[in-house]
Specification:
3% helix; five-stranded antiparallel β-sheet; 156 residues
């Protein structure tokens, strides 16, 4: 039985706009969109995950009456806003997670979901770059707003 605070690897079953339904063994759970990333970088979890993806999550809550489980991707990692790891103008080596055909944070044009920092995902415009999942790319933070938890990132 899972408990609050447990860290487990889960399989993505069904991404939705509002979150990602996942499974660990026989336990189903939901990661709502604010729990996917320390950075507000997409407006739909269809851009964040696909069925069959594997995610590492921290269990936030298990409702004993219903058995519903709430989980978080971002809570597995320290908050980069609190640790000062998000710096405007700083250059980062980020991991490409996936190509997104229509990225809402790229004005509906193609983009890439990248893991900027552990637990912090951002969307960058595809431009003419061709990258595969797992590629390491150099990016720079152009702007950040701690109140909104958002960053603007572009290729370096």
């Amino acid at each position: 039985m899972l408990s609050a605070g447990d860290i487990v690897t889960v399989d993505v079953v069904s991404p939705q706009v509002f979150g990602v339904f996942c499974r660990h063994g026989s336990d189903d759970m939901l990661v709502v969109i604010p729990q996917t990333s320390w950075i507000a970088s997409f407006n739909s979890c269809f851009q964040f995950a696909e069925p069959g993806d594997r995610l590492t999550v921290r269990i936030r809550h298990v409702d004993p009456a219903t058995g519903k489980i709430a989980a978080s991707v971002k809570d597995v990692h320290p908050d980069p806003w609190e640790t000062g790891k998000i710096v405007i103008g700083a250059q980062y080596e980020a991991r490409v997670v996936r190509f997104v055909e229509t990225a809402d944070r790229c004005d509906g044009k193609p983009g890439y979901l990248i893991e900027l920092l552990p637990g912090s995902y951002a969307m960058i415009p595809a431009k003419s770059h061709k990258h595969l999942s797992g590629d390491i790319v150099k990016v720079r933070i152009l702007a950040a707003d701690i109140r909104l938890g958002s960053v603007v990132v572009d290729w370096w």
